[in-house]
Amino acid sequence: MDAGVRHTWTMRNLLAVCIVTVVHLVVLAVFLGGIWLIAALHNPISIAGGVVCVAIAVLLRPRPARLRAAAVLLDPAVSPTLHAVAARVAEELGTPPVSRIAFDPGNRAEFARVGWRGHRTLVIGLPLWSMLGEQEKIAVLARGAAYNARGELRSRVFIASALESMRRFLDALRGPVRGTGSEHVLAFTAQFGTLPQFDDQMWISSANRGGKTILWLFGYPALWLLRGEESLLAPDSERAARHADRRCAQLTGARAVVSLLEKETLGEPAMTHIRNGVLRGTPDPLGSLPEWLAGLSHADRDSIVLRDKGIPSAAARIAPLCEVALAEGFTVSAAEWGRAEEELCPLLDPVRKAIHDWAIAGSTA
Known about the structure:
Layout: H1 11-40, H2 44-59, E1 72-73, H3 80-93, E2 100-104, E3 109-114, E4 119-125, H4 126-131, H5 134-150, H6 157-172, H7 182-186, H8 206-252, H9 254-264, H10 267-280, H11 289-294, H12 298-307, H13 314-321, H14 334-347, H15 349-364
Parallel strand pairs: 2-4
Antiparallel strand pairs: 1-2, 3-4
């Protein structure tokens, strides 16, 4: 087995697991404490406190990773060609194939363990898929298979469920503190930035002062805990990403992997192009993405890649691939890709509709 497949249990990884364990135990303690307050102390204050504790524990309960509401999970019986290609790619890599393939409205391709049973799922963004060439699509499938073999700590159900609990808790706090500027603090799901500095004008009203109290008592500690956990898990995620990129490049050639990584960074401008296409009444905004991409200058693309803040960043992932052979290896015939696309076309209509609805909603917001 490739040495990169094995997890290295560093002190950071062990500390990350300990923090997650504490999160689960605290949630259990809050729930049991709430039950005790309701059952043992028969007075209105304790009952009210117990109800609050139980409500918080229910909000923080472990939740497995799930697909987006607009995602489409492919049935192998209805899309046999794509699943057959994925199986052949995994066989070439010497890894087990992913158990499920899904498409969603995003612009990335990600490996995730979905549900309590941890179904190993490759989630592909339809806008990204629309921009990819044949070798790059093979690279997507190969990277999913490589992640499936090695995985990463954050995708394990025990850890992922705690991270999801903290995210949902912070998301729930947006209600009571909405309008206080905390949206910028709590909009961390896709990207973790530095905490903004609040000026006194944001806390003039009593509602804002109440929102600030809630934020400091609950939001900031949970946010800092989540950011700390993400920081501890980051080196393992970087190793997993670089291992998957290397294995993928050995199969498809580095050029396809580099191109895939570059196109994944184009999410925001690509979605802006799609939105403009929808508003202009373009018949197929997704289908126009390759033409739009061809019109981007190399300088613009390089600038977007350098601004990527992923863990690790696209630029950091691309650099080591320069040492890998650029020649194409595993290939799939154009006829087979044609059959795969024909099978996918009607299945992905719900994702296209979700993207169209998002574009319309954004224009009227």
